[in-house]
Amino acid sequence: MMPVDKLTPMLQQYFTIKSQYNDCLLLFRLGDFYELFDEDAKVASKVLEITLTGRDAGGNSRIPMCGVPYHAADSYIATLVKSGFKVAVCEQVEDPKEAKGVVKREVVRVITPGTVIDGELLPHKSNNYLAVLSWHQKVVGVAFVDVSTGEFRVTEFSGPQAPASLHAELERIDPAECLADPQLLEQESIMSKLRPGLVERITPYDPRAFHKDAAYQSLTRQLDVPSLAGFNLEDKPAAVKAAGAVVSYLRETQMRSLSHISSIQYYLADGFMAVDSATRRNLELTETLRQGSYEGSLLWVLDDTQTAMGGRLLRQWVERPLIDIDAIEKRQNAVRALYENTMLRAELRESLSSISDIERLCSRVVYGSANARD
Fold it and tell me: Does residue 321 contact residue 275 with C-beta atoms inside 8 Å?
């Protein structure tokens, strides 16, 4: 590529912004299209199977280019994200008619595998989790959030069983994206116990986000509370580090209000039946052993829920069997009450059938991406 100062003003602007998002494919708004240039264009044209063209770059040089229509960008972005790429969306932030020179543009959001919110890009009855792992004095913190619903949970693992427990929990959560404190990645005793294919999906994140005080402040600011006592997190620094880093990453990539993430739940993994990955596969809880498909699994047989929210909850119940007798009996009593009252059950199902996915609709409203139908 020719020197930046020899490029056209528009391409100078593009590469200035691109230099701040080198780990992303940059979708650069030009009129009714999002354009990609240079190496990003070469990558995107192959993944999206669209034509690679060129554009005058200044002087007698040309630069590779490809683009997608603005109104259809969501499906293209979904393809890129599903292929493992981060996508930075760069918009025009001033009226071209009023611009003096090149229209001002800024990145308004970075879309990663763990931060997708568009319901059309997500499976309706399963969660899309971003997980973050921390390390504090031989304790592993695990925090995960579903940005599309606002669900935010955190736990800790320590002692000889920590590696196995972490492995089982990551298998259960199956995060779309997983970040970690670089200090944790250096712990051979932990990382060596994670199966191949899982450990490669974990990427390091900025160590500053895991600083104890910074994470605490980030989390209390997000939850709008003076302390974390009400969430049972005051004496759990590893969990706080992980949760605080989640908030930092979301603020860094989403660049907008996260007000729908207003609570966090600390849970004990040993409050549920431990089901290792081999057992999970052999029991075919959520996918079949031979083909890895949902159809034919236990959840497929059980799931006759009327709403996407109910479907996600049922999946969580199947993946995390209760072991507390009181909780089990309470759930059984609820099932029995509906089983024995056919009319009530039918009325409830009819009422629920008209309810949309409120959790994800609320998230899109907060993000400012809701449409009239939402």
Answer: yes
The whole-number pLDDT of residue 99 equals 75
- Pairing relation of β-strands 177-180 and 139-146? unpaired
10-residue block means of pLDDT along the chain (374 residues)? 71 93 94 94 95 83 92 89 92 83 90 83 87 96 95 95 90 92 93 80 94 96 95 96 97 88 92 84 91 92 95 94 94 96 96 92 83 80
Q: Three-state SS for 13?
A: helix
pTM for the structure as a whole: 0.86
Name every residue whose Cβ is closer than 8 Å to that of residue 188 and which is 6 or more positions away in sequence.
none
Strands 61-69, 86-92: parallel, antiparallel or unpaired by DSSP? Answer: unpaired
